[in-house]
Predict the structure.
Amino acid sequence: MDIDLKFDCTGVNWKKVVATLKAVQMGCYAPKVHQKAFENSPVTVFAYESNQLIGFGRAISDGAYQAAVYDMAVNPQYQGRKIGSLILKNILERLPGCNVILYASPGKEGFYQKHQFRKLKTGMALFLNPEQKRNGGFTE
């Protein structure tokens, strides 16, 4: 398997981004909203096989010592092939000297623990749709 990585948003099929997020049961918005989020993120990674988008992730950062990873997803057909690890590794390499936080989909915490992430004891969130996040297992 030959995976090509891109680190900018040029030529991204945003409908495919939405379809992938839906397929992995992550929150998603209209394609233009995801485009804006990725384009406003200083770190983006897109994984392609044979010119087909198969995974992606992004991070926001203050560029000094804090960062957060968002929208990490790999098409279900390609999961289990270390593509997510490749995407995450490339995101983290672009965040030197930063503390990095994220929130994982319930049941996916183990993936991030394999990459040295640890559960927070004091993490807090203020979501736009708190009941949906509570029902989805993200919050108490």
